[in-house]
Automatic annotation (TrEMBL):
Protein name (Swiss-Prot/TrEMBL): Endonuclease/Exonuclease/phosphatase family protein
Signal peptide: none
Pfam families reported for this sequence: Exo_endo_phos
Keywords: Endonuclease, Exonuclease, Hydrolase, Nuclease
Domain Endonuclease/exonuclease/phosphatase: 2-273
Superkingdom: Bacteria
Species: Loktanella atrilutea
GO function terms (MF aspect): endonuclease activity; exonuclease activity
């Protein structure tokens, strides 16, 4: 919470937070962090499919859920805001079947059957469009947390799914799922670096190159100092600190505003090793907080 106090965002997306039906835990957390408003929907992570998705002969395990999770609500998302949400205008795309995404590339092999295709959702956690009633007018928050493109086999199920989770947002901006958002900010953990690590990295490069979006290029001194040998991308842009080569430091967390916004500042909370606040970032886990200041 000390990091959030320092950065003082107006809107914050939390990932890997457990969901409870009444939202009590998230409300309490929001209050402790100084936010008046919180929002969450039940995630796909931990949602039972009733099928043996990983082919190990058992059902009901974490890898058999719509998104990896040991129980319903495991590793969900939560939005916190200093301004109210408009729950009646929320659009939730989390129940879209993977096979129903236009142009979806589905895995092949014994671990992908007609029965699985009939229930498998695209979203690992969720894809939400949540309006925030900001002082200058509503802002649509496009929130998601995608599957890591690993932990599968030669069928590349997670890699393909990760790519299509990104492609869904492109189609949202095309107007394929209702009116295209206008004043929006895309927030999320894509689990995909545009240049390094595993995954179908071109998908991330395509999103960053979309003219409807702005890449604020948030950097940090800590990321630069922790550069991995042989890294292709700019280490100053990295947002996750993982062991070298497994998979190493990567840029996987993003705040991408619509091109209509004016970006006045951006960064990653990853202080240099000799900074007194470096310990805060290390204690918070591998992911770093990404922030962007915007004006209309």
């Amino acid at each position: 919470m000390a990091i959030v106090e320092q950065v003082a965002p107006d809107v914050l997306l939390l990932t890997d937070v457990d969901y409870d039906l009444d939202g009590e835990a998230l409300r309490n957390l929001a209050g402790r962090m100084g936010f008046e408003h919180s929002f969450a929907l039940a995630p796909n992570s931990g949602m039972a499919t009733g099928l043996d998705l990983d082919g190990n002969g058992r059902i009901g395990e974490a890898r058999d859920a719509q998104g990896w999770g040991k129980f319903s609500g495991d590793s969900g998302m939560g939005l916190l805001s200093r301004w109210p949400f408009d729950p009646d205008a929320v659009r939730d795309l989390s129940d879209l079947l993977w096979r129903d995404l236009s142009g979806a590339v589905l895995p092949k092999g014994p671990l992908w059957t007609d029965d699985i295709a009939a229930v498998q959702r695209l979203s690992t956690t969720g894809h939400w469009i949540v309006p925030v009633l900001a002082p200058g007018g509503p802002v649509d928050i496009l929130a998601f947390s995608a599957t890591p493109p690993v932990f599968d086999g030669p069928e590349d199920r997670n890699g393909l799914r990760n790519r299509d989770e990104l492609r869904l947002w492109t189609q949202v901006l095309d107007g394929a799922f209702g009116p295209a958002p206008q004043d929006f900010v895309l927030l999320g953990n894509t689990n995909l670096d545009p240049f390094d690590g595993d995954g179908l990295r071109q998908a991330m490069r395509d999103v960053l190159a979309d003219p409807r979006l702005t890449d604020p290029l948030p950097v940090s001194a800590g990321g630069m100092a922790a550069a991995d040998p042989g890294q292709t991308g700019d280490p100053a842009l990295d947002t996750a600190d993982w062991p070298d080569g497994a998979p190493g430091n990567l840029r996987v967390d993003y705040v991408l505003p619509a091109a209509t916004w004016t970006v006045t500042g951006a960064g990653v909370f990853w202080p240099a090793p000799d900074d007194p606040d470096a310990a805060l970032a290390q204690a918070a886990g591998p992911h770093r907080l990404v922030w962007v200041d915007l004006h209309r």
